[in-house]
Design brief:
The protein is α/β, with parallel strands linked by helices. Among the domains are: 160 residues, Isoleucyl-tRNA Synthetase, Domain 1 (Orthogonal Bundle), CATH 1.10.730.10; 103 residues, Nucleic acid-binding proteins (OB fold (Dihydrolipoamide Acetyltransferase, E2P)), CATH 2.40.50. Helix content is 41%, strand content 18%. The protein is built from 21 helices and 27 strands. Strands 1, 2, 3, 4, 8, 12 and 13 form a seven-stranded parallel β-sheet that branches. Strand 18 and strand 19 form a beta hairpin. The chain is flat and about 105 Å long.
């Protein structure tokens, strides 16, 4: 019987620089899904790669003093190395500078133009270079790019446009009739309500202001705009031919079963990409999943903050599978996940070293201690065995249900629940106590057999997430890799097999203090440059002499009581201690401070101002404030703690 196909893709990584662990997460997530589908018996094709054209890359290459091709060759190679380091089992790594891809993009553009879906015009609007996106003024958020928050610049140029509105109704209908198409649900609602239902604007699909792109072959001063170039990799990479001569592989694999992408580019994949496919008369992908972001503990990763984490760096500290465990297990389904050094150390020590590593180590050590490493099923069972076996045999179904909904973190939790149940089984059966009783040896052998069998089943489920660890466990247990179909039966580990003589430590516990000391050396805090605040120019008053200035007396006062002035919207009345005296001072600062906030503050006071009535209340001085251009006030307070009455000179 022929296997059912499963075609999964990641977004292709942009070659503007080395990807941080948040970018790497997507490749690991896709790999876990691909590996799990293979375990289930699917014929999986997993494609990833790099997006290599655009103005941003042209600029970065110029800064580096090399050609754009040299620049993307270097970065693409680095990205591929990181994907390989993280043990991602991709079947194809596509680059948008691949010759066959570039040729197909040119043909796709020409076909869309001939069909009337693309037309020439002029674009005038705001352009975000990092996102390579045009926006109207109304689409900007606080005058900045709505996607990345960076400044946009005015741009005007001749361009080709795609008639998005031509296919909008058809796309809306598809989304309504295919509820699984956009996941999670919140992303679907966002696309419908914010973009599709209000009406789509035509999309700019070519540029003339830079050269690093695929030329439009019938109008070579234009290069194909990045999204029409990048998105088509999902079909060109598997053999699509615009002239109708597509490969057998394309016929087998398309439509894709899953496009796995970051939530920040879901608009391009659920609006632009489906419409491009409609123009090409191709079926739409079955599902697009917009995963959340992996954030550093103190917010989004930023080089200026010195908090950017890279996969190779984390692997040096924790190992490949520990990093895979963390990024997969700590990412919620819809909300952003958080990564910190402290949390990684805690998880490694508790879940990996203790729950899993200790379980395997104890089981092998006891098998060697009591039976010379021979694991034999003597079938001396007790009711406690039935409960454990039922739990273990239920785990594959639970994991499958979670993975079906792409809830990878929850699936991993189910696997580790299995390992925790086996640890509990050790506590329930107490092998060390059975070993002391001569007539309990067959029962002891059965308990150890059950543990080895349970770990073998757990390892099979773990393989998609932590493949190296699974291999190490099975090698130590002298166990064969189990098929998915075999996981519904307990007792398939060959009775009489022998485990290794000396178990290796799967995960060594780490000392948090030592790790953090190494991290500080690796990542010294970066001093962020403070933006220089613009000064405020005010209307100058007439010059005074030093004698004029000497007439004013300034002292430190301590506010000991304060209340609002009745019948006034602006005034507060403060009782201010100055030396041995208490002065009553009325100030127009009610919009900026509450009476409660005023009490206890040390302030600067003009103490020889002639008393005057304000709103019927006597005021015996003036409290000094600073005022900005917007009219906000701030009390002038001494830098150090000075006694009430101290002279200001």
């Amino acid at each position: 019987m022929e296997k059912q196909k499963y075609y999964i893709t990641t977004a292709i990584a942009y070659t503007s620089g080395k990807p941080h662990i948040g970018n790497t997460y997507e490749a690991v997530l896709a790999d876990a899904i691909a590996r799990y589908k293979r375990l289930e018996g699917y014929d999986v094709f997993f494609q990833t790669g790099t997006d290599e054209h655009g103005q941003k890359i042209e600029l970065k290459a110029a800064e580096a003093g090399i050609t754009p091709k040299e620049f993307v060759d270097n970065v693409s190679g680095e990205i591929k190395n990181i994907w390989d380091l993280m043990n991602t089992s991709y079947d194809k790594f596509i680059r948008t500078t691949d010759e066959d891809h570039e040729k197909q993009v040119q043909k796709i553009f020409k076909k869309m133009y001939a069909k009337g879906d693309i037309y020439k015009g002029h674009y005038e609007g705001m352009y975000c270079t990092p996102c390579e996106s045009f926006f109207t003024e109304s689409q900007l958020v606080d005058g900045k790019c709505p996607d990345c928050g960076r400044p946009c610049i005015p741009a005007k140029e001749e361009a080709y446009f795609f008639k998005m509105s031509k296919y909008a109704d058809r796309l809306i209908e598809h989304i309504k009739t295919h509820p699984e198409f956009i996941q999670p649900e919140s992303r679907k609602n966002e696309m419908m309500n914010n973009f599709l239902l209000p009406g789509l604007q035509d999309l700019c699909v070519s540029r003339t202001s830079f050269k690093w792109g695929i030329p439009v072959d019938f109008d070579p001063k234009h290069v194909v705009y990045v999204w029409l170039d990048a998105l088509t990799n999902y079909i060109t990479g598997i053999g699509y031919d615009c002239d109708g001569d597509s490969t057998e592989q394309f016929g087998k694999l398309w439509p894709a079963d899953l496009h796995l992408i970051g939530k920040d580019i879901i608009r391009f994949h659920t609006i632009y990409w489906p419409i491009f496919l409609m123009s090409l008369d191709l079926p739409l992908p079955k599902q697009v999943f917009g995963h959340p972001w992996l954030l550093q503990g103190d917010g989004k990763m930023s080089k200026s903050k010195g908090n950017v984490l890279y996969a190779d760096e984390l692997v040096d500290f924790f190992g490949v599978d520990a990093v895979r465990y963390f990024v997969l297990h700590e990412m919620p389904f819809e909300n952003d996940g958080v990564i910190t050094w402290e949390l990684m150390v805690e998880r490694l020590n508790s879940e990996l070293a203790n729950t899993l590593g200790n379980l395997v180590n104890r089981t092998i050590s006891m098998s060697n201690k009591y039976f010379g490493g021979v694991v034999e099923n003597k079938n001396v069972t007790e009711p406690v065995d039935d409960d454990m076996k039922a739990f273990v045999l239920a785990a594959p179904g639970k994991v499958a249900a979670r993975m079906e909904k792409l809830r990878v973190a929850d699936a991993m939790t189910e696997v580790f629940s299995l390992f925790k149940r086996l640890n509990k089984y050790i506590d329930e059966t107490m092998p060390w106590a059975l070993a002391k009783e001569e007539d309990k040896q067959d029962r002891l052998a059965t308990v150890l057999y059950n543990l080895v069998e349970g770990i073998t089943i757990g390892a099979a489920l773990l393989e998609a997430f932590m493949p190296e660890t699974t291999e190490r466990i099975l090698t130590q247990l002298n166990a064969e890799k189990r098929s998915f179909e075999s996981l519904d039966t307990f007792g398939q580990y060959p009775s009489g097999n022998k485990v290794v003589e000396k178990p290796e430590i799967l995960f060594a516990r780490l000392d948090l203090k030592e790790v953090m000391e190494k991290v500080e050396k690796l990542h010294p805090p970066v001093q962020e440059e403070k933006e220089e605040e613009p000064g405020i120019d005010i209307e100058p008053k007439a010059e005074i002499t030093f004698e004029d200035f000497e007439k004013l007396q300034f002292q430190v006062g301590e506010i000991i009581a304060c209340e609002a002035v009745k019948k006034s919207k602006k005034l507060l009345c403060s009782q201010v201690k100055i030396g041995s005296q208490v002065r009553q001072i009325v100030s127009g600062i009610k919009a900026h401070y509450t009476p409660e906030e005023m009490v206890g503050k040390k302030v600067m006071v003009v103490t020889n101002l002639k008393p005057a009535k304000l709103a019927g209340v006597m005021s015996e001085g003036m409290i000094l404030c600073a005022e900005d251009a917007e009219g906000n006030l701030a009390l002038m307070t001494p830098e150090k703690n000075m006694p009430a009455g101290a002279e200001i000179c």
